[in-house]
Amino acid sequence: xxxxxxxxxxxxxxxxxxxxxxxxxxxxxxxxxxxxxxxxxxxxxxxxxxxxxxxxxxxxxxxxxxxxxxxxxxxxxxxxxxxxxxxxxxxxxxxxxxxxxxxxxx
Length: 106
Known about the structure:
- The chain has a domain at 6-55.
- Helices cover 42% and strands 0% of the residues.
- The chain has three helices and no strands.
- It has helices spanning 6-15, 17-26, 31-55.
- The longest helix has 25 residues, at 31-55.
- It starts with 5 loop residues before the first helix and ends in a 51-residue tail after the last helix.
C-alpha cells in the first residue's frame, strides 16, 4: 500500500473532511480527535485506492488480436473466397403420440 501518495492523502482528507471542519472551523471537536480520525482514514483510503488500482490495472491492454465475427477463407491470390452454403439443419425425429388419457399401457 502506498500511504504517502498524494491521492491517498487527498482521499483521506476527503473522508475525514467533516472532522477537520468541526475541529478547524466550528471548534466543537478537539484537534487531536480530528487528527486521530485522519490517521485512521489514511490506511483506509490507501486500501480503497489499492483495490481500485488492482481492478483497473489491465484496462486498455489487449494481448491478442481483434476478435472477428466470422473468418474468411482466402484464395491463393489473397482474394476472399465465396462463402460456402451451410448444410440444411437436420429435422428432428418424429415422436410417437402420447397415450390417451385413462388408457392402460401395454
